[in-house]
Fold this sequence. Notes:
Number of domains: 1
Oligomer: single chain
Shape: globular
Amino acid sequence: xxxxxxxxxxxxxxxxxxxxxxxxxxxxxxxxxxxxxxxxxxxxxxxxxxxxxxxxxxxxxxxxxxxxxxxxxxxxxxxxxxxxxxxxxxxxxxxxxxxxxxxxxxxxxxxxxxxxxxxxxxxxxxxxxxxxxxxxxxxxxxxxxxxxxxxxxxxxxxxxxxxxxxxxxxxxxxxxxxxxxxxxxxxxxxxxxxxxxxxxxxxxxxxx
Length: 208
């Protein structure tokens, strides 16, 4: 259901470029192609092993571009925690330890230092920003302040209960997105706690 909704939203907003932040092995980008989105995809994945899988998967997709970097509010080097389930990799420390987790130093860049020139080369004008960075979405969003005018929709993962240390409250995240000129369009459940309550949600927002 969420994918069908996403397809209709991308069509409604006339999106011609999707920025996939926290791409991991390309699951989201593959889903985009599966629902018929044929436009440009710009993926960001900092973990070397996962980026190599991602790049190989999309090597024959002429409308895909990949960057092996993380995005944030400032240019710097940071250490990312890569657990055994790599889709949960985060620049924040998890609240629960994972004995199989490892550390990797990654480059962090601001999106507004990269996106304007990239979409100009691609000939794109309407961007959809998907963020799934395990608690770091607001930092990614802060680093996009200089290119906000070309972003017409966003998707961000919100944690109702924190699964990483020092991650923002979901109400705080929604408030920041709204203050930047976006309004809530839809919420969908990602995960629930064992008792049935909400753990994580995807929020979809469009420019007001």
